[in-house]
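Bit of a strange request maybe. I'm writing a small parser for structure token strings and I need a real example to test against, not something I typed by hand. Could someone generate the tokens for this chain?
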Amino acid sequence: MIALVTGATSGIGKSTAELFARNGYDVVITGRRQERLDEFQKHLEKTYKVKVLSLCFDIREQKEVEKAIKALPEAFTHIDVLVNNAGLAAGLSPIQDGNLDHWERMIDTNIKGLLYITREISNLMIKNKRGHIINVGSIAGKEAYANGNVYCASKHAVDALNKGMRIDLLPHGIRVSAVNPGMVETEFSVVRFDGDEDRAKKVYAGIQPLTAEDIADTIYWMASRPAHVNINDIIIMPTIQANATTVLRKN
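Reply from user aminoacidic:
Good idea to test on real output. This should exercise your parser:
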């Protein structure tokens, strides 16, 4: 069994790749940071004795994605699970003050990048007559919140694509699922605030958010259901969070 995980150099992607490797999957890990990929590959191979292939490319660049997947060694072309994890939030401001670079990064990564990799891998799955695509969405893909405009829009797109993929790939027996987390403490807020760690820490102050491992557990559970079972969609929240904006904080 082989799992391909995008955005595997940190956070949810890294925890997910590790969990699949722990359970005996060979893994393909992708990301933009070569040093992190190399280090993680060595760790997985040494710890779990599985085969690991690392692919360093920018998922926003269609030609890079196509080239990387077309060059997969034969042994790694029979991908059983694709975890579309690569994504980000950039900025938190009202629409009239939006930063165009932030907008482009979110649209190019969260929507277009997901499409580029899915197009390549879904065709391999159709050829192999099996597969499971798991899309990492967000509570932001279920409801909008103040100043989240474009990020919310990009994750609403993931929600719609998840439903569309499920329909389109049904005749090929390919399962399609989505996991939509609430607050998860990873590099997410540091990236959103352009590296401002102090501001990022305030997001999680006084609460117990989800961890990357919590989401990885959910993703693996979805992938490990019997072949006749498809988990279409899951919203997973920390106990202290009721919706996108209602959070119980300790004083």
